[in-house]
Each structure stands twice: as C-alpha cells, then as structure tokens.
Amino acid sequence: MEEINKSVPLKIALIPVLFLIGLLSVNVIGVFGDDALSGSNQFILILSASLTVALGMYRGTSWSHILKGIEKSIADTSGAIIIILLIGALAGSWMISGIVPAMVYYGLMLLSPSIFLPATAIICATVSLATGSSWSTSATVGIALVGIGQALGMNEAIVAGAVISGAYFGDKLSPMSDTTNLAPAVAGTDLFTHIRYMLYTTLPSFIIALVLFAMIGLFKEAEGQIQSVSAIMSELAAGFNLSLWLFLVPVAVIAMIIMRVPAIPALLIGALAGIVFALIFQSELLVSLSGGSQIADFYRVLMNSLTVDMAYPAEHPVLKELLSSGGMSGMLGTIWLILAAMIFGGSMEATGFLHSISVALLRLAKGTFSLIATTVGTTAFMNVSAGDQYLALVVPGKMFKEAYEEKDLAPENLSRTLEDSGTVTSVLVPHNTCGAYQSGVLGVDTMAYLPYAFFNYLSPIMTLIYAAFNIKIRKLIKKD
Questions:
Q1: CB-CB neighbours of 114 under 10 Å
Q2: Per-residue model confidence as pLDDT tens digits over 35-63
Q3: Please, are residues 349 and 56 in contact by the beta-carbon 8 Å criterion?
Q4: Domain ranges, ordered by start, for the chain
Q5: Cβ–Cβ < 8 Å for 173, 202
Q6: 3-state class of 282 per DSSP?
Q7: Spatial separation of the C-alpha atoms in residues 85 and 327, rounded to whole Å
Q8: Helices 433-442 & 156-173 angle (0-180, nearest 10)
Q9: d(CA 361, CA 207)
Q10: CA distances from 7 to 4, 83, 352, 359, 360 (A)
Q11: Can you say whether residue 260 is alpha, beta or left, with left for phi > 0 and alpha for psi between -120 and 50 degrees?
Q12: Residue 223 in this model has a pLDDT that exceeds 70
C-alpha cells in the first residue's frame, strides 16, 4: 500500500480548497442562487477533485492510490445513499396513503403560529432523542411539520431551521446516535460521561434557540399571516380519507428505530406499509389518479409514487407544492451531490492534502482556548473539505487527542468539542452529506435554512465561550 505524501506544503494543499470555496461562492451568490444544487455545484466539486488529483500526481502520488482513496470515500457513503433512496420511496407512499396529509390536517388543528416554531423544535428533539437519528426525524415528522408551517403561512426556511435545530439537539444527546457513540470512542472517554458533559453547552444553546423561535412565532402572528387554513383543511378532508389509524405507520417506523432495527429495513417496511394503507384507506383517490379500477391501474400509480412521482391535483397553491413527491428519483440530485463531494474528499485525503492542513492547524494550538478553538475550526474545515461529518469527528479526534492529554485536559473536553462543532455544523454545508440530505428531504435549500438553524451554530459558539471563560473545562485526574 502506497504511503500518503505527508510533506505537502500548506500553500499547495490549500489550493483545491480555496478553488472550491471560490467557485461555490460564485455559484451560490453570484449566478445560480438556490438552483446551485441542481448540478453546477456538483461539477465544481468534480473540478476541484481534478485539481487535487493533478497537484497530487505532480507531487508524486500515483493515480492508482488516489483512485483507491476515492473509491473508499464513496464506499463509506453507500449505506447513506440507500437510506436516501428509501426515504424518497417512503415520502411518496406516505403521501398517496394519506399519512402526510393526515399529519398536516391534525397538526393544523392543534398548532398555532405563536407556538408552532418552538413546538416544531421540541417535537423533533423528542423524536430524535428517542430514535438517535436526525435523518429519520426529518424524513418522518420533519416533512409533515414543514407542510404544516407552509399552511400556516410560515416561511419554509424558518420551519426547516426549527426542524433541524430540534433534530440535531436530540441526535447529539441520544445514546443511540452513531455520532454520540463515535465522538467519545475517538476521544477516549465513555458514552455517558460524554453525554453528561455535553449538557453544559447543549442545553443553553437549545434554550436560546427556542427563545428565538418563540419570538419569530409571536412576530408572525402579529403580522396576521394565518391565511386559508380552513380552506386547506377542507380540501384535505375532501381529497383524502383521513383517520388517526394512519398514524400507525409513522409510529411503527419510529418504534422500530428506537428498538435498534437498522434504518434500511425500517424505512423499507415504512414505505411498503404506506402502500398497504393507500390500498386500505385511499381506494377512491387511487381510482381518481389511475383513471381506472383494475389491479394494473393501481399498481402503476403506487409504483410511480414510490419511484418517480406522486402529485395530487390540489387547487390550493400551498397544497399543490405540499402534496407532491418525486419518489426515489427525486433524491437523485442529493445522491449526485454526495458522490461528487466524496470524490473531492477522497482525493484530498489520498494525496495527503488534508493531513498537511491538519498539521498546520495543530501548530496553532498553544493554550486551552486556542486548542479548543483550533479543534472547532478543524472540524468545520473537515465538514467543508471532506464533505462528511464522520471524517469531521474522526480526523480531528485522532489529531488532537494527545494535545489534550499534554495540556492535562480530560478527554470529554475533546469529545464535547467534536460534537458541538463537527456533528451540528455538517448540516450547514450544502455539499456535505448531511446538508445535501436535509435539503433534499425537507425541500429547502441549505443556504436558505442556514440562518435559522439557530442551535447548530450556537453550539460551537457556546463551546468557545466556555473555553474563553474556563467554564466546565475538566482537568485530567492523575493517579499516583
């Protein structure tokens, strides 16, 4: 196995990153805006990877070694890609079965604009805490809450920010979360010490986020933006056979995830259960959409809802957007983005460019505050450059573990910092696996919801505040 070239000068290692950031900025800010994820950002990631490969080969790294690095990077996301495809199928089947319309209908009955945003964050936090998965939370209750928010006249970007804030709060603190287990394992502490220590920064960040969401909700109510709710509810009731029995499917999916059933079979069962419930509850709708009552007609409509599209012929403009789904094909743009990001991240790692940049960052860590600040910066950089939150935890965790020990800092300081900055900021990067996923599932551009994902950028800020004022910075207990 060829050794990674670890002597790459920093000025060379930074070229692909600066190239990527520059072109992405032109794409998003100057030219395409929200449409940048339609393909141009993906091609820029490929261009940046090509530049990395050219520079790496010039420095002596072989093409075969770089290709193996790219292949490994892509292979690491195979599970996520399958999950994304199944979530597309689940969204389509839950739409045609009436599950999502029922969530929206009953949600409109219970939630008002004044409490909707903080309630959204709390609901998502509860589900995510129980399941240990921000992804599953967004794919189930998150989609419905965005729809309810639209019906209440809320800006979908703000609602998505509340969904993501709650989902990542629960993900961070759940003992069933993969990142919550990964961070202490890398840092060298145990799971529950890690969770207890995270509470110091996580709870204040979430409380501040809830206050901000509550303030926005009160302002929205004052603007009087509750329009056409009764018309929306009437059209939903007329078009679908709505029943509380429909909630059995999402409850079953969430229960399976709580019981540690792997996400892929749980989501597949959820999608198929949606099809069964469509046959049971929405036979009239199936006849209307298929134009016939034969088994082949039903089969075509149901299969299309899973794979290609499902569009209910709604009259209300909010419902036209809400009651449509691209199925599995609707998630292909997200998968394309993830693959492109992994090509770039894999080439950066295989050429040793990431290692060179990491070493340079490590030199900045002198005192306790600078060490924690450098950790925060490194995890954020990894989320941008490698495009994957797991690398943003593992690479800095390995890099800084000895540095924390040398400064007599307990390993939970490192594990907390990794989660406060790596886990939660991944969703703020458009080409990161998490940012691409959440944008695709919720139907809201990453840069649109970013300003409202309060919890996600309050967490690293809170970590830096604690470090600056030496609050809850635990020292190593040395044994004689």
A1: 16
A2: 666 778 889 889 999 999 999 999 999 99
A3: no
A4: 10-77+332-442+454-468, 79-329
A5: yes
A6: coil
A7: 8
A8: 130
A9: 32
A10: 9, 38, 8, 10, 11
A11: left
A12: no
